[in-house]
Amino acid sequence: MRKMMISGVTALALLTGGIVGFGGVGSSVEAAQTTTTFKDVPATHWASSAINSAVEQGYFKGYADGTFKPSSPVTKAEMASILGRLSDQPNASTQEQNNFTDIPEWAKSGVSIAIAKGFINPSNYKGKLDAQGALQRGEMATWLTQGLTVVDPDYKQALSDVTNTVVPAKEYFTGKLASAQKNAVAVSLGTGLMSVANDKTFGVDRTTTRAEVAVLIARYATVAKAKPADFQGLNELRAVGLTGTNLNIIAPKYQKTPKNKFFDSYDYSRVTDQFSQVRNKELVTVTSYADVKLKNWIIINPYVTGLKRSIYYPVFVDEKDTLLRGSYYSFAEFDLNIKNSMTQLQAGSLLQSPSINALKSPNSESFSKYSVPHINDFLGSKGLFQVKNPTYWSMGLLHFDKELTTQVKLITKEGTDFNVTSN
Question: pTM score, two decimals?
Fold first, then answer.
């Protein structure tokens, strides 16, 4: 995909003052800024390079007083006009009509083009875009990921695959991430198109600023040139959505336990390495204090950095955390149905597995900042559970050292045997 540039018509409009909403007709700005040096965008500004690039390419203008106003909000009409100017974005195969009744005259063409390019689906609205309203990050994620589905159909598949995934954003764990935006947020995080803030929230309701849009234009061009499979984070999110675990991506050495490890009389046809076959199924337990289901199982390799790190690393693990003997972190989301009463210690006896153990939750600062459900949220005095149906994340270790237990074994009450070990 070539570098996204503005069209010749747009360039002419810029020269004649015809680009609106960002320093021309339809805006209160008096004149375009002819330089990419702005009084309020020092070289140390986090978006300085992206802002200068966006201005040079014609996506934005500065203000007559020499400022850019990087923190000012961007309206939906303005963003639609910018997206419509991405000349390398192909048109969607199925065209929807611009039936919005609240688009200002200056933005009608831009909105129509953005619709044609697949960024905006009028069928998701009720005749009004709220064009003059500030664009929020959740809706921005929706628009951008919809655009990606036009570039590559596998992005459309990715949006479907993450429906049941674990989203590494605080709103997901607190139940405040709307299902209508969850998939778009997941894909935007998985590709690196967007990210969480310092408070660990994605900020679906936060206003999108001019500086953010400048950065997103550049990021979108980069992501659109790549394949969905190129992003490990997105691969993990898709795998967790479809199967409940990222094991095959982070720890591919863990494979189906071979038949010669079982007694000759064992029915090996019951054995599987597909976690999806035991996900959300009642498991056979060692003790009978509670019925147990596992919703998700996340593996994290603590020894890699950068893009090789799990997308879930920042959620569960602090930078200072280390492990011994080559172990990986193992985090399982337990769904318990306590029969009578149960203590924390008794919870640890349910499966008696070093990898998947209901005894404790992570004590990392990250875990707390993301507000991930912790076992302590449900415990009272003397470690007794105060609720009958707690759902929380536990912490264990995935071993590779042959002197330790490397086998992970889960059997459903229906008889399916999830059984994997390090080869």
Answer: 0.90
